[in-house]
Amino acid sequence: MPMTAAKAARLKGLPGTVVSYAVFVLWTLITVVPLAWMGYSSFKSNEELTLDIYALPKALFDNAEDEYVVIAPAINIVYPYDREADTRERLIVESTTIAPTRKLMVHHLLKGELPPELAALEPGDTLRVSQLPAAMRRSIHWKTVFFNYEAALTRGKLAGKFLNSLLYAGVSTALIVLLGVMTGFALAKMSFRRLSMIVAGLIGFGYLISNNSVIIPLFLMLSKLKLTDTHLGMILVYTAFGLPLSVMLSSQFIKGLPDSLVESAFMDGAGHFRAFRSVILPMTAPVMVTIAIISSLGIWNEFLLVLVIASSEATKSLPVGVYSFSSLQSTQLGWQLAALVLAVLPVMLVYFAFHKRLTQGVVAGAVKG
What we know:
The protein is mainly alpha-helical. The protein has 15 helices and 4 strands.
């Protein structure tokens, strides 16, 4: 039976389809597998990660029979309560299986809630989690499971760095979007043709300049202005580096809008700012969302600038906090992975919530004009 033309066309395109799907599946695995590994590895102890980085977590979950040793108060122990205000007697116990002798996995058990035989234990004596009252067993179980996350937030002081990242990304992105769209409107719709070409050229040149190439003169300039190690200094730097892309995308988009819209606003008595606010801003919403997503994600993940310019804990951002768990002496892999999960989650949420808008805005900014 002779092969139909449609069937022949399908068979001819089959190799290309197979290759396309293979590339798609491979790219998906390259993206998803490391994220999945990072997620489940954040629930592994440092010892487990050292022995086998690919094995599933066990030590932090299987803790019902964990052994603890009673220890004496010491200056290198983190106390989760005010020792002067709360004077109730506590039994301080340290895990013998998870970070032993390092004063990291430590619990402070109220002696008044313990059986008499356990409350009477002395430093050096041991006990098992299964010997404790049910409420203490549950508390220790969940604290052990989320040990890496609790340590990352408390010992790494990630909460403050998280707020700094929100501040830098939020304020800088707002300035990048507003100033970029305003500049794009001026370049696209105002009658300064030669000047617009010069400004557009300078902005395009600025887009080609990398952070690394200007980090030293930038630091020296900020030092002269006394803006190093300040929130304002970081926001201004991020805004300056984000503006070129914002101006290029918005100007290309606005060029594609009919000139009659702006002319009609002028005929109705509107000035440039009123025309910008009432006509341009509502119509540039897709590209504004795109610029906001690209800028905020870039600022959220930025590492080098904040490492060099922000020197104190009060101004450092989340990527620097993640890096702080590595040192020449040791690396807390579990804490670092937990911090990475906390840093990646907001990025993933933003992307999944706005990925359609991102695609629409990029395409619109590319084809308009």
